[in-house]
Amino acid sequence: MMTGGKTLANLGLTTGRASQIMVQGLAVDSREVRPGYLFAALPGKHVHGAEFTKFALRQGASVILTDPYGADLIAGTLPVHVAEICVVDDPRQALSGAAALFFCSQPQVIVAVTGTNGKTSVATFCRQIWTHMGLKAVNLGTTGVEGAWSAPLNHTTPEPITLHRALAQAAEAEVTHAAMEASSHGLEQKRLDGVVLSAAGFTNFSQDHLDYHNTFEAYFSAKLGLFDRVLHLQGCAVINVDDAKGPELTKGCIARGQSVITVGRSVADLQILGQKYDATGQDILFSWKGESHQVKVPLVGGFQGENLMLAAAMVLASGGEAGEVFASLKAVFAVRGRMELAVTRANGASIYVDYAHTPDAVATALKALRPHVMGRLVVVLGAGGDRDPDKRTLMGQAADRFADIAFVTDDNPRTEDPALIRGMVMVGAPDATEVADRAEAILRAVDCLQPGDILLIAGKGHESCQIIGHDVFPFDDVEQASIAVAALEGKY
Questions:
Q1: Does one domain contain both 462 and 346?
Q2: pTM value?
């Protein structure tokens, strides 16, 4: 995509000496700098980006965007006036605004959803609803950019240069509607600032990412940023009021003057009146503005019905007509790795794969499957390394409480000792069977399935690799489940 140069003033920036200097591109990685680029030297968890300024200058950077500390680092190590230095108190927010102005194009309608669980499903359901309504739509997040235009993404919420470039490319491809996942990391680092939102959604709040945010208060504060900073005052907040944080969030949005659509089983604008489950999905009875509606969808698990209702409300909040929106619900389908039916054994036992990787998500997934189970509920799970260690035992407890049989195995151990991670999960599930090798754990779990049983393989969902140490190995839970069934039933 061709983008002409912009002046610093065009990007909402200035320096002590210049505002009309031309900027030909933006980069946060010094290796990606080209002549005439602005290099954003941002504070990091372990090292400040200003440490890489000399490399950016070697690549031809003409402007350095940084904070006062970064400016001091640069002044102490580099000659005076080697480049224009733009010093701001919050360079992350400044970069997001500059990226929005540099790429200068977004789809006409953008919504974003945050919460501990359900973001990918909600964003994908929004895209599916819009598509069925005849609109060119995409969703952006954990699974990349999907829909009318597609592209890979390295993060759920990418850094602002990548994000705004993707939004501009989507708009260039005539995409008119986009649904985004808003991660707590992305919100904390203000990556979404500069995105013009029609609506913002909230799914739920439970333990995750405390390795990054340290406290529940900081974690929720990051999520709150979607509503009190990114969503403009004329935007609409769509809130799951069944979650404990829902009423608090609703009150805050109303106080700021934002419109609100509430969703939930309790008294809500879009109220779930009932759900009936069968082997292939569920019927959902719900009400909107005093009128009841019923829809049958091929989604397994009550929480997926809840995610669908939140998505419907977000489409309504962003201008969708109720009749069209509700008629489109029957066209939705399960998101890859989100309560996805992987394979069915010859005896009728079903195997599902889900991304559940938090205590609440594991509990929710297992409880959601229970109405579909005539026999036993079996789970394979592990916990990721280099992530919040406090949730591991709680994940084991969820498996112990809500499954009949549990296998504890490796997830993505990364640089931690896998045995220590499994041991922490086993503390919560002392009766579980520990199997280090994930493929073997899946095979053993599949082998134990009897007619009427259901197996949930939790934790990795759509992921197609396993990270052990610093090495990345191909590994797909859906594929492994299919291989296990084929091997056990002599289909090779």
A1: yes
A2: 0.85
CA torsion sign, 54 to 57 to 58 to 61?
A: positive
Q: What is the longest distance spanned by two Cα atoms in the chain?
A: 76
User: Are both 281 and 167 inside the same structural domain?
Assistant: yes
159 closest CA partner among 331, 37, 44, 68: 44
Count the residues in the chain.
Answer: 492
How confident is the model over 89-135, as pLDDT tens digits?
999 999 999 999 999 999 999 999 999 888 999 999 999 999 999 99
CATH code, 436 = 3.90.190.20
Q: Tokens representing 29?
A: 């990685």
Report residue 193 as tokens: 């600032």
DSSP state of 235: S
What is the number of other CB atoms lying within 10 angstroms of the CB of residue 261? 21
Residue 271 covered by a domain: yes
CATH number of the domain encompassing residue 249: 3.40.1190.10
Q: Whole domain around residue 445: which residue ranges?
A: 340-488
Phi-psi region of 49 (alpha: psi -120 to 50; beta: other; left: phi over 0): alpha
Q: Is 16 exposed, middle or buried (0-12, 13-18, 19+ CB in 10 A)?
A: exposed
Q: How far apart are CA 367 and CA 350, in angstroms?
A: 16
Radius of gyration of the chain (CA): 24
In a domain, 1, yes or no: no
Helix 91-103 to helix 160-172 angle, to the nearest 10 degrees? 20
How far, in Å, CA of 56 to CA of 42, rounded? 13
